[in-house]
Amino acid sequence: MARPVTPDERTQIVAALREHAGTREGGIRAVARRFGRALSTIHRIARDEGITVDRSQTAAATAARTVDLAARRAELAAALLDDVDQLRARAWSAYTYADRGPTGPVRVTLDLPPLSEQRNAYVALGVALDKHVLLDKHDSGTQVETATSLVATLAAGLRAAHHELVAADEAVDDATEAVDDASSP
Asked: What is the pLDDT of residue 149?
C-alpha cells in the first residue's frame, strides 16, 4: 500500500501545481515524478484543491504529431507506388543470370525473366500496392467522417427547414379557411 500523503507534502504538491501551472514543470506527470507519487494521487489533490490542468499544450502537441505522421504516411505511400513501378518494370525487363558453360560460368540474358521470377515480382508488387491502399484509406478516414458529419448536419438543417415550411403552409391554410368561414353566409 502506498504511503499516505502528509499535510506538509500535500501543501508542497499544491504549491508546485499552482506555481508552475501551464508549464512543463507544473504538469501532473512532472509533479508526480518530483514527489514520487502516482498520477492518480496528484490528479486527486489537484481536483480537491480546484486546480485545473491546462491541456492545450498536450492537445496542440498531439495535433502536430498527427499531422507529422500523416505527412510521413503520405511520403511512404508515394514511395510504395515508386516501388510498384520499379517491381513492374523489373518483371518485364531483360533478365541476366549465370549458368554453367563448357569452360566455366557464362552469363545468359533472356528477353523476360522466367515466370517464377515474374510471379515473385508481382507478389512483391501486390504487397506494396496493398500497403499503399491501406495507408491511403487510413488518412482518408477522417475526411470521410468529416464529410459524413457535414452531410448529416445539412440533412438535419433541411429537415428543420421543411418542418418550418410545412408549419407555415398549415398556418396559411388555417387562416384561409377562417377567412372563408367568416365570409360565407
From this structure: 67
Domain with 133 in it: 63-138
Tally Cβ neighbours within 10 Å of residue 13. Answer: 22
Residue 25 lies in a domain: yes
Q: Using 50, 70 and 90 to split pLDDT, how confident is the model at 27?
A: confident
Which cell numbers in the block locate residue 19?
Answer: 506555481
Handedness of CA 113, 117, 123, 127 (dihedral sign): negative
Residues 47 and 68 in one domain: no
Partners of 109 in beta bridges? 96
DSSP characters over 20-83: TTTSGGGSHHHHHHHHT--HHHHHHHHHHTTPPP--HHHHHHHHHHHHHHHHHHHHHHHHHHHH
Residues 164, 165, 171, 174: is their CA dihedral positive or negative? negative
Q: For the chain, state the CA radius of gyration.
A: 35
Q: Is residue 106 predicted with pLDDT exceeding 80?
A: yes
